[in-house]
Amino acid sequence: MSQRKQKFLNGEIYHIAARRIGDELLFKDINDYYRGIFSIFEFNTIEPILIRNRRKLRRKIYLVNKEEVGRGLTSANFSVSISDNLTVIQSTPQNPRDLLVEILGFCFMPNHIHLLVRQLKDGGISKFMQKFGSGYAVYFKGKHNLQKKGYFFQNKFNSVHIETEDQLRNVFVYIHTNPAALIESNWKEKGITNPKKVIKFLEEYKWSSYQDYIGKKNFPSVTKREWLLEIMGSAQGCKKSIDEWVKYKGEIREFGDLALEN
After folding, report:
1. Would you say the pTM of this structure is higher than 0.85?
2. Can you name the residues that pair with 103 across neighbouring β-strands?
């Protein structure tokens, strides 16, 4: 996966989108989604990463933590979160990481992903996307018995520089309302016909950072949310922005071309 001819600046925020080549599925089952989450967390470091070794280490931490909890003991050293398939996504105090980017938000769709990131290191976004792209492609091809050669992602990921707070608010809503298309595929033409259903669906959609932004612990270690929460006006402000977008799209279905606006 390569970048467009754009210079990414340290401290600046970018909306990144990457799509599977040919619009084929990027995630075929729940474990693919978990692996994607695991990957954007683990590959976000200047250090080289071998996922197999990271999984072994986190499995060991989990088992020790489980034993300690079973004995009624607690320790800050074992502050981890874990899924059923052992996708642990939280670093420990003994394992600080030198990050390439700060992940502010994300959303995984069946054939593409959206990321909202702030670059921290020179070349950080490009390095992060290269590591994620190649690492996830190796996993997916091996699991689903695809030929090893050939492109997996479209050759270049898309990127937009976020320069104003209004842009930032808009992209927050855009990223986290993407899953609406999964239950109302033609909302652009007809508007959202069932706003309540869509609002509920977005709040329950596991594969984005929206739950963490509205106070439902999901993958809290993946994103850095404090600053953006302040911009959005707390968890309540995040929810209000999403709800208003959904309701507005539901209301405009009778107004022709307006329904095509994003």
Report:
1. no
2. 117
